[in-house]
Amino acid sequence: MRFCSVSGARIITTSAHAAASATDFTVSEPGGDAASTFWQNEDMDVDQARKLVLISRDPRSYQGSTTREPGEADPNGATNIAGVYVVDAKDPADLKLLAFEQLPTGHTTTCINDCQWLWTGGPAATTKMRNTLGWTGRPIIVTDLRDPANPVGHTQAQDAVDVFRKDGVTAYSHDVQVDDMGIAWVSGDGGTRGYWTRGRHYDPLKGHRRRASAEDPVPYAGGTTPLVRPTQDDFFGYFDHNAQHITQKVGNYPSGDLLYVTNENIIDCSVAGELKVVSLAGSYDGQGWASTPQNPFRLNLVGHWTPWGKPGSATTGTCSAHWFTVNGNTVVQAWYGQGTRFLDMSDPANPTQVGYFRVPSGTTGVTSGSASATYWHNGYVYVADYRRGIDTLKFDGTITGTPDGVCWGSCDGAKVTYTGTADGTAGGTVPATLSLTLGPPASFGAFTPGVDGEYAAATTANVISSAGDAALSVSDPGHLTNGAFALAQPLSGFALDRLAQQQAVALTGRTPGGCRGLLT
Q1: Are 353 and 335 in the same domain?
Q2: SS3 of 241, please?
């Protein structure tokens, strides 16, 4: 479910695991069947500026399978095709299909860099992927959406993003959520990892600053979230369905330190998947990307929560945590079998239930609930329910903390109060500064007379600039000379990095081959 403003009207866009009607444009897709279903497009997205609806297509749509490749013989006659639909929603009463881009993935799709790009993930790997690539699940596939009528998927295996996510194995990348810092958090089998997708940032895997893009993101932090129950050491125990990076200060935890994570594990309600709170401390140097079975890295578990045994809890059946959104220090989360739960996260180690909405079975004339997702929006909470459709709720409790702006369309600032110690502020005036300090003189060492070769020497420079990023260039130093004698080949020089406000860089000079005219 997403919210979009069209001609001043608020529009809810939603796709669901529901029977396809005769008016569903996906039914006329090759391989579609009005008696079949278009399902497993679990997390759609909306381009607010261009009024586009982006919907993933899971290979299981229309009786398909995760194990077979498109074009393989299928006992159901299914195509097993995955990808993304691009829909023009400028006129909500007359949706138009602009394009369908076939991809190797198709379970969720998310806008990256203002919807100029899409990241599409899931589901499980085909048999061929497992046998030829060693994948246990499908990674993130990037689509160029700068021309929405002609999207271009980067479909080659070497172009995939978020590979080797589970202790060195490429596993199921399930969902992507972008925080208000612009970091894209990918959750799935083996944990949750964050990536810069624009700007220049330090890459802990490569050891230097470089430019991030949707096609070549820079790792930020994250890794495998620890088990709540050590006995659940399997796929579902480590399956992070979705996650949100909490960029504000919560309790005693500094801004940006926490991740809230859904562990989807649909089993007996007493031991089902829970909401987990983990700390990113110790994961900023690429530890989550270097993890192996022999040397595993795990994030720190701060807290976890389940409705089991709490007021309004189901006592039988199967349950699991599912989609949630955050408003200040309040989480509203949908639970299979447990309805909608409102949690106060002011103490992240001990989440506290402050409200719930659950429609149990057994009441004549009332459809029981099966909540899938919850969304804060303009003072209300919208619950997407597999059986009931959409329930609209109003939370009349007090929301503590500060809304951080990541609430699937908008956050609700009403009745927000802050309790505790706020982050301090500091300021001052910095005079205009541009300085360059060179290190010790560079030395080429001894030349070998009469032999062609390349000689290199290096020194350092420390640059301080109050003007933000600065480019350090090295002009042509000319030719090495000894009195009236000079080398035929000129000396070259270069700097190894762009500069931030203050940074030490390496300067290198070279004399190229052709040293037969060596100085005498």
Answers
A1: yes
A2: strand
